[in-house]
Amino acid sequence: MKTKEEKLELIKAAMGEIACDSTFVNVRFVNVFTGEIYPAEVDVYKGYVIHVRKDEKAILPSKEVIDAKGLYMIPGYVDPHMHIESTMLIPENFARVSVPWGTTCINHDLHEIGNVLGIDGIRFMIENGNKTRQRQYAMASSCVPAVVNLENAGASFTSKEISELLDLENVTAVAEIMDFVGVIKGDKRMHGIIEAGLEKNAFLQGHCPGLAGAGLDAYAISGIESDHETSTPKEVVDPSAAGHAYGSEVFFPG
């Protein structure tokens, strides 16, 4: 998140009041919004893209000019939902192998290490991920254990633990609320976790494969905003079934 001072500095760079750090020339720019690929020059200041210039000249020359020699330039990839633990790598090493392939940002749920080492394990993963150049946003794991009284886990998270996790740096959401049966049956623990997320203004990510009709309506009413675990075409394309499709998430109408 940029501070007020950082934003004002970027505005000055955009207005040509201060020079950008670098300009990439001879770029083949991939515009993911229009689907076009065209020659462009790209100005960068302190790691932020300030201008993508198709025909116009720079207001102020940059400190450095880099010849891209006709290479393609595209935005970094964002993985909206993944579990680093499944890669058998710590966050630092995951970033080392994924950034060179274009993944510059991830949102990850740490329920795998949470189910083994509790908050201490999650805290380690977050702190380790904050050392990387990759933007790693974590989600507070809502189901540790996934099914109460049916699993043996290293921890048990309630609203207290979720609230504590949401106060950590770069934790932005409550992760895949997979106990959808508990949600629609009014389970006290699950609704405490949901309320903890709402109180922190966190995004509530859903996980309710195959749920439809009254059950899905009840699930969405709870405050959960999406379902990352859609399993049928109907859930994706029929707004009455599951909301609006976007990437790997389906977002419920608000």
Can you put this structure into words, describing what you see?
This protein is an alpha/beta fold. It folds into two domains: 70 residues, Urease, subunit C, domain 1 (Roll); 175 residues, TIM Barrel (Alpha-Beta Barrel). The chain is 32% helix and 28% strand. It has nine helices and 13 strands. Strands 1, 2, 3, 4 and 5 form a five-stranded mixed sheet that branches. It has a five-stranded parallel sheet with strand order 6-7-8-9-10. Helix 4 packs parallel to helix 6. The protein starts with a helix and ends with a strand.
Summarize the model shown.
With 254 residues, the protein is α/β, with parallel strands linked by helices.
Low-confidence stretches: 239-248
Helix content: 25-40%
CATH topology of the largest domain, anyone?
A: TIM Barrel
In terms of DSSP E residues, the strand content is 25-35%
CATH architecture assignment of the largest domain:
Alpha-Beta Barrel
Order of helices and strands: HEEEEEEHEHEHEHHEHEHHEE
What structural class should be given to the helix and strand makeup? alpha/beta
Tally of helical runs:
9
Question: How would the global form be characterised?
Answer: elongated
Radius of gyration from the alpha-carbon trace, in angstroms: 22 Å
Key descriptive features of the protein:
single chain, 254 residues, Urease, subunit C, domain 1, TIM Barrel, five-stranded mixed beta sheet, 13 strands
